[in-house]
Design brief:
homodimer; five-stranded parallel β-sheet; 46% helix; alpha/beta
Chain lengths: 298, 298
């Protein structure tokens, strides 16, 4: 483990906030009031504003790259109990789940990423328990899983659209907590990110999608239907955040009105959690001296 | 289609070789002599040497990013006959399949990538025809598929290690050509890349893996066993290149002794093929004016 500190040191001190971002964005336990959390804030951001963001995010790349490779190496070498990481993204339409994947998760080697986008369940998925498809998508040892939407849809859209009775969705919070606890115990570090966007900002983004033919494909008329139910969704999010905010799978609330902050913040959260794993390179599973001799002779 | 030329123009003219790289690296039809193709060459490289490579490769990002998004948009919008792209990577151990994925494919949005690494077939895969797992992994419309190894293993390792009789593998070249033809006709642009590394360079890379504990995980004693059969593998590659070099799925031979050239070259090949698709943004599938009014009122 000693080698780790040396090789994962931060290149630019500017990328290191004074307090870990994980602490700043971690949702405190207890009652949640989303309206009291500023969607345009930039907690822990080390730059002056938007202009610095590409360079600050880019500056994370070499370190993220090495940390990810170390995680991957542990998975590949079938080290017993090799860990994995899961970045779970939730948020209202236009909050930027896709943008985070493109700009933050895109910083790491695609070989180390296991991305799953959860859509409306397929007929096959519908035959199973709602956690069936989630369990199958959990990251394998050494991998960084990304969930674009997740099990939380089953207490969000399912609740707001009344797709199942109250008694049914109401039991899911505890079930999700149990599920996440088991995943954490099996070695998955879970980083749940709620991308917190304002009602006004959503309107601007929907408007922008309709203003450019290059963005039409991102627009879905159903997003406006969901927007009409904004208070019901905020209430459902509030419950999901409050009832599923555990130590083994905490929620982080990412102010998401500023895309540049949001992308930097998720990359930085990933960095801090990877550092927290404190991984060494795996030991050789062969006789190094003997193999050196074989290669030399070859 | 008119909008395309404007928005995909190259940012840095230095990234544009005088002749398309696809033409320079395309394996000519007819007999193949791998020993006559320089593994350390840098055809079409617009820089002076290694020092320029990170900037030249990085300079491709904005354009690759837009081209990939356009492809993805066409897939997402379920445009009839939406295309896909397949980058197929083959090469001896240490030739850099992983490096290409990390450094070249890593330039595009992970949401648009469908990566499959073909290992020794699983018991499940073994129950099926050797093309079964390949067919399942073909990229969906709008996606860039990456094959890390491929159907060619079934005429390479299978042939050299005599895992099936000659009569069996000998029929596979035509079968693979048919398979690729169908995939191409269904809308997949196939870019087959042979990463051409020298016997001497492989030795250096294996030696380097044994010199650093951070690289032990990349080392596999079996790689030296395969190295001992180098001539048999070169012969098998020669046949695969010669007999499966078709217009619908041509081979590109990438000199791979210089990692920086190899990574730039594959990114550049991808760029040229994406430009070749000449894609427009998909039409709106809704009434734009009506939706603008809905959003404005929301």
């Amino acid at each position: 483990m000693a080698a780790k500190k040396k090789s994962t040191k931060t290149k630019a001190s500017a990328t290191k906030p004074t307090e870990p971002l994980s602490a700043l964005l971690r949702l405190p336990s207890g009652p949640v009031d989303l309206s009291a959390i500023d969607t345009a804030a930039t907690p822990g951001y080390p730059g002056a504003g938007k202009a610095d963001a590409p360079a600050l995010t880019e500056a994370l790349t070499p370190e993220l790259s090495e940390l990810q490779e170390r995680l991957y190496a542990n998975g590949r070498s079938e080290v017993e109990g090799a860990p994995s990481v899961l970045v779970l993204l939730q948020g209202m339409d236009t909050s930027g789940k896709g943008g985070v994947i493109r700009h933050a998760m895109g910083l790491v080697d695609p070989q180390g990423i296991q991305l799953t986008s959860f859509k409306v369940p397929t007929p096959e998925e519908r035959k199973h328990h709602y956690l069936w498809r989630i369990r199958r998508a959990l990251p394998k040892p050494g991998m960084i899983g990304i969930f674009d939407r997740s099990q939380y849809e089953d207490v969000l859209v399912v609740r707001v659209e009344q797709l199942v009775p109250v008694s049914e969705w109401n039991g899911r919070y505890d079930e999700i907590n149990d599920f996440e606890k088991k995943a954490a115990e099996a070695g998955t570090t879970i980083i749940k990110c709620f991308l917190h966007v304002s009602f006004a900002e959503q309107k601007e983004r929907l408007t922008a999608r309709l203003a450019s033919p290059a963005k039409y494909w991102k627009y879905n008329p159903r997003d406006v239907d969901a927007r009409a139910k904004w208070p019901a969704y905020q209430e459902a999010y509030t419950d999901a955040l409050e009832r599923c905010n555990t130590d083994h799978a905490p929620w982080f609330v990412i102010p998401a009105d500023r895309k540049w902050y949001r992308n930097w913040a998720v990359a930085q959260l990933l960095r801090e959690h990877l550092i927290g794993l404190d991984l060494s390179w795996p030991e050789a599973t062969f006789d190094v001296a003997a193999e050196k001799a074989r290669v030399a002779k070859s």
